[in-house]
Design goal:
The protein is globular. The chain has 11 helices and 13 strands. It starts with a strand and ends in a 9-residue tail after the last strand. The strands form 3 sheets. It has an 8-stranded parallel β-sheet with strand order 4-5-6-7-8-9-10-11. The protein is α/β, with parallel strands linked by helices.
Length: 328
Amino acid sequence: MTVQVRQENFPLAQVFTISRGSRTETRVLTVEISADGCKGRGECVPYPRYGESIESVTRQIEWMANELTHPEPAMNRAVLAERMPAGAARNALDCALWDLEAKRSGRRVWEIAGIAPPKPVVTAYTLSLDEPQKMRNEAAKHAHRPLLKIKLGGWNDVERLEAVRSGAPDSSIIVDANEGWTAAVYRELCPTLQRLGVKLVEQPLPAGRDQGLADLPRPVPICADESCHTRAELQQLINRYDYINIKLDKTGGLTEALALRDEARQRGFQIMVGCMVGSSLGMAPAVVAAQNAAFVDLDGPLWLAQDRPHGLRYDKAGVHPPMSELWG
């Protein structure tokens, strides 16, 4: 078994802005694990918010590859979960191992996992943070989409919300503050969120300072993003959040994502499945995890100037499961 990791850069079709900054390209790490003449691939997006960089995640992957490509212990998903923390590095390796097993066995990933074959899922399309009029124009351009996700986190968020609703009067809307609000701002915005029919609010308060959500009104459901990575956080989210946003770069791969999804539902949370801005290779396993989720936000490839070969198909039905040539 051999493991290779390389950086790949994907220019974006337009600038992508959230409350923490802007970008014109996304940098991903692609992992390839080869064995028995087959090759499995996985992708991750290191995220500075979680103390990750291209360099640090590359070192993690290379270290783990050196540790686990010797006869003992063999590299497998269970060993990864024991030896690596959740995060981007484990995600790329975990998903590459799923893909490798599918290639070696001639089965699809969902067959291996013992779950139903995935179907297309409707995905949100994200409008990045901008001036209200520009966001209105973008909303109008994408008003045909059933679900829009708005990046917020600035002093004129009410104007942004009004502008987007004006531009896309029939679309469902979810908003993402990316930890950019205070409790006072949240209270002030609640009436506007209700009036404009917002369906969900992601991470209004900073992770680690969200205890106050238990005492705040929740007229619109609140979803944990930065506050939820794996099953370990679920207990402390009870009475603060209604949904959790599962992202494979947070969970450390599809293995934990599926386990987190199942346990979260058992504990009464509803499910959103999201993504970092990456290619179809990074979204493909997330489509498997997103089955029957209440909200799906897997629009990363739609932001790229050019996707990978055999990229995911997007149409009126939503984002379709991956072809085996791409992953799984």
